[in-house]
Design a protein that fits this description.
The protein has seven helices and seven strands; from the N terminus they run E-H-E-H-E-H-E-H-E-H-E-H-H-E.
Length: 255
């Protein structure tokens, strides 16, 4: 277990009250990390943090509500983490939005701005807030949850795909810049996962069959099947990986 041991580490995870983010925060805590549970709704943060604390038998999870679209709230999120545990060793940028479904030529400007702001700019801001302390310690791991949408075009979620490709490049740029200080930055690119975010693609059995028929594994993924990659990237097991994107999609992008 030493390769995956996160004892003594502090992990901040955005969008961690449901779906992939919730699975990640549970698994990081299971492997020994102190975790910050964060999303917009305070009651959801409290629910997940309470569940983790009961399961781990101690003061392991801290709930901190935050809207990632506002820099001052991200600053408060980071400050609350440091006030509680004095440091941040692992940052997982998972929160994201997609308020528009349709042709890109018909997309309203405000929808495009919202997607880029939440999915790219907020990650940039968080990295600005957290990386300096990691660089000073010469140790840290940042994981950005991207999507296979960043590797493919789409006629209906084009801006979302652009934002996820930008996240991959954000990871590459930061990996180059801060690698000499032993700060690692990587992405995870999930395929179709059974989350509320992707409900339209799996709630109907016929749509689900069409959505998964082209992938070798012929099924939808579960949030917990993404969480293991986050543990890997946060731990000693991933110590020689940086600037990379791990694709977890049941083989969809290779078929």
């Amino acid at each position: 277990m030493e390769l995956f041991d996160l004892t003594g580490k502090v992990a901040l995870v955005t969008g961690s009250t449901r779906g992939i983010g919730e699975a990640i925060v549970h698994r990081l805590a299971q492997h020994g990390a102190k975790v910050i549970v964060s999303s917009r709704k305070a009651d959801a943060c409290e629910r997940v943090a309470t569940t983790i604390n009961k399961a781990r038998g101690g003061d392991v999870a801290l709930p901190v509500p935050c809207n990632i679209n506002y820099k001052e709230q991200l600053q408060a999120l980071v400050a609350a983490t440091r006030a509680k545990w004095q440091r941040i060793d692992v940052l997982v940028c998972n929160a994201a939005i997609n308020p528009y479904f349709g042709p890109q030529m018909e997309m309203p400007d405000d929808a495009f701005d919202k997607i880029m702001g939440a999915n790219v700019r907020s990650n940039h801001w968080l990295c600005q807030l957290v990386i300096p302390e990691m660089a000073d310690r010469r140790e840290g791991s940042i994981v950005i949850v991207s999507s296979i949408g960043g590797l493919r075009g789409s006629p209906v979620i084009g801006a979302y795909c652009i934002s996820k490709a930008a996240d991959m490049q954000l990871a590459r740029n930061l990996a180059v810049e801060y690698g000499p200080q032993n700060v690692r930055v990587n992405c995870i690119a999930p395929g179709l996962i059974k989350t509320d975010f992707a409900r339209a693609l799996w709630d109907n059995p016929e749509i689900l069959k069409r959505s998964t028929s082209g992938a070798p594994l012929r099924r939808i993924g579960e949030p917990d099947e993404i969480a293991g990659a986050a543990v890997f990237l946060a731990s000693k097991a991933g110590a020689f990986m940086t600037g990379q994107t791990i694709v977890i999609d049941g083989g969809a992008t290779i078929a």
